[in-house]
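Please check the following for our workbook:

***
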Amino acid sequence: MSTPPAFTLHASFSPLLSLYDAFLLDQFGVIHNGSEALHGAVDCIEELVKRKKKLAILSNTSSPSHVALKRLPKFGLHSDMFAGGLVSSGDECAKFVRKEYCNSEKPKKALWLTWKESEKQNPGEYLAHCESGADGTIEVAESVEDADFILLHGSEVWRRCRETAPNRIMDLGFLYNEDFALVDQLLDKSLERGLPLVCANPDLVVGLPGGVVGNMPGKIASRYEEKGGAVRQFGKPHPQHFLACLESMKHSVDRDDGESIPGVAHVGDSLEHDVTGANAAGVDSVFVLGGIHARELGLVPTVAERDGGDLGEGSSLSEADLRARLDSLFAERGIWPTHVVPRLSL
């Protein structure tokens, strides 16, 4: 029987500072929760910048990169900290949609699953971003019957119009409740018509403020794929997403066979997306315990006000217990990171 890959468990992020020249950072569950920076993350990033480490954000957000970068000041960060910028799955998806569906004499119609309009989300802006620089446009389908493809931008509403019209925007009941009733109706009809699905965010779940777990577009895309539908997803864990980020920060991807790309590590909280993708791309991975897997491991998630992901005060776990749980989780998923840390904190 083969020996499982070894991982190193650290008490903080500090030991990693001297091991790498560059870091690719996940957003949700590592830097922030969508509303607030997570405890210790900003101080850690400031220290990385002070040490002249090359940084980039590699995110499965469905927002365009330029939109996501504009949100950084809200978390006490700014775009100048990230020499490699921000590479988003939403951008990679928009490029594909622009190429495949916007260069046509006859506009293609999208069955559009997206987010509600909010301070954080602007679905209309994303649709315009998909069309930017293209010869054609995208029309929004009123029904499955007149759609050419499914644009899975978000997992909150089914939007049957480009403009804001409440009577033509239907809540999917999925983001917070994981109710597949309406989703399955749309997917089953789409499958009958052979519609391809394009997904801008492959995440399955995300940790939201207040300990709420949100059900993400990737879960709907996986459902359609399981039914036999044709699905194209962008972002992590696809290796191309990591390589595009390394290219944006001008980091060499040369490596010897079987070896990791030297000098760079990816920091993320999802085994399925962050660690799997980093491993496939040949990048060392840093698994953050205080994110989406925290409760599964019997740990407290990291929030803005306090630390999480460790054996802190009040924990009933010993280090031996935690190692045993990690061994079990990694073996069950068949996914092993290079390093394990409580959170992005010194």
